[in-house]
Write a structure and sequence with these properties.
Layout: E1 2-8, H1 16-24, E2 34-36, E3 39-45, H2 55-71, E4 77-79, H3 91-94, E5 106-109, E6 123-126
């Protein structure tokens, strides 16, 4: 299972799910987006981590992830509540960005159950705290 986490554009994986991704899932320090090791980074903060990205900017990165997950149906993706910690967004702001994710291989944090606004029947893996 690929661990999908929120990062900053500079790839400094120092706290929360990003630190977990670096310690346990092969996230690469200095790589802020995309597949790395057994993880996938979706930026929600700027390189200097002082400011959060805008929803349209995050949407671009989420769309890249959805394209990657769609093109790799043999891989499973465990999506954490990206952007809902240090970046300061609510689950209701971020979860709907994933509505077009494939159902077969993308699994979401249970906190997003009922928030994903689609008729698809997504699967949930549990919840990350760290």
């Amino acid at each position: 299972m690929i661990f999908v986490f929120g990062s900053n554009e500079g790839g400094y994986h120092g706290l929360g799910a990003a630190l977990t991704a670096k310690k346990y899932y092969g996230a690469i320090q200095g790589q802020g987006t995309g597949f790395q090791g057994n993880s996938y980074a979706i930026p929600t903060k700027q390189t200097n981590f002082q400011y959060s990205l805008t929803i349209p900017e995050i949407t671009t990165y989420v769309d890249q992830f959805i394209n990657y997950a769609t093109a790799n149906p043999d891989k499973g993706f465990q999506v954490t509540r990206i952007g809902c910690g240090l970046a300061g967004f609510t689950d209701a702001q971020i979860a709907p960005l994933f509505n077009e994710a494939p159902v077969a291989n993308v699994f979401f944090d249970t906190a997003w159950r009922g928030i994903l606004t689609t008729n698809k029947e997504f699967e949930y893996w549990g919840s990350f705290s760290g």
